[in-house]
Amino acid sequence: MRIALGLEYDGFPFSGWQTQPGGNTVQDALERALAEIAGAPVRVVCAGRTDAGVHAAAQVVHFDVPARRPENAWVRGANAHLPDSISVRWSRVVPGDFHARFSARSRSYRYVLFNHAVRPALLHGKVGWFHLPLDAEAMRAGAALLVGEKDFSAFRAAECQAKSPVKTLHRADVTCQGDLIVFDFCASAFLHHMVRNLVGALVYVGKGAHPPDWISELVSGRDRRLAAPTFSPSGLYLSGVEYEARWQLPTNGRIIAPFYPLDLQLA
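Request: output the structure for the sequence above.
Response:
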C-alpha cells in the first residue's frame, strides 16, 4: 500500500530534510514515527528536499507499507511520536505509480525577510533579516526578469546535482507588509540553493548596489561568482506543491499552504 502525507515543519532545529548518520533530520524523525505505526521500517520520499534551517508549510511525502491502518492513524498516530516542530496534516492512500517528487507539476517557495534596522527576536529563525532600507519596487522589477525558461547557473550551488541548470520559473513576486518583504517563487523544479541565491541578488538590487537589469546580466552570464552571496535559510519556506487532480490529493492537488506564523496568505 502506498500512502501520501502532507506535513509542515520548523526546520530550525534540524540538519535539513535528508537522512544523515547523526539522525537529526526531518526525514529521520518522520521515518522513526511512521515505523512505530507500521510496525516495520519505513522509507519516505519527499516532494522537495530542504536544507538545514529551511522550513516547510506544505511538504508532501509518500511511502510504501505492507500494513493496513486507518488513514487517521498515519496522522494522529505519527504526530504522537513526532517532535513538536513536525506535524503530519493529512494522509491519503494513493495509486502505486504516484511519486511525491516526480508526480509534482510545480513547487512554490516563499522567503520572508524582516527589513528593519534592529534584528528580530520573536521571529528569530523564522525570517531572514536585512538592516538597510530596501527598495521593493526595484526588487520587483528585477524579479520580473527571472520569469520564464532560463539557465539559472548563476544561482546554482556548487554542490548541486541537477542534470540541467535550465528551469522554468512561473512566478517571481515581491510584496510588502509592514517591515516584512515577501518573495514568492513557483517553478517546475529548483536548483540547490536557487531561491536563497535569487533573494540574495534581489537584496543587492534593493539596497542600490545594482540596477534591476543586473539580474538579466547575471542570468546571461551564467557565472555564480558574479552573483550575490547565498542568503540565510531562516526565512525560506516550501510553501506549496501542485499535482494533477487525478491523484485525489487535498484541495484537488494544489497544495498551497497559508504562511505560518504570520497572517499572510498565498495567492
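The longest strand covers residues 166-177.
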